[in-house]
Amino acid sequence: METERKKQLQKAYKMAPTFYGVIQIENNLTHKRFIDVVPNLHNRWQFYQLNLNKNFYRNTPLQADWNEQGADNFTYSVLWKAETADVTNMRATLKNLKDKWLHKLHPFDDNGYNQRPKDWEEN
What we know:
The chain is α+β, with helices and mostly antiparallel strands. It has one domain (about 20-110): 3-Layer(aba) Sandwich (GIY-YIG endonuclease), CATH 3.40.1440. It is about 40% helix and about 20% strand. Strand 1 and strand 2 form a beta hairpin. The N and C termini lie far apart (about 60 Å). The model has no long low-confidence stretch (mean pLDDT about 90).
């Protein structure tokens, strides 16, 4: 019986829609935020926590604040999402989406952890 239940759960997981989107990690003390776009939102917060806990983003302000202030002072949220089913070029879609949200939120310098794009122009 356990094997059959496991197969049902695996099938349901494979049939579930996949979402891409825009995520935010916010420092609750400084309100600085990190904005990123991801091709699959499933388990994304666990992915970032694992990498930050293992010091993967060393030499970055986000990693420094994470190490100094602790994981409990950060929150994760999905700012926008959509199903991947209709996307024909995920790479281009994500690039355009990130540009849009960086222009919208300006998560740079005192406002955030993102690097200002080299071709940045204020709109």
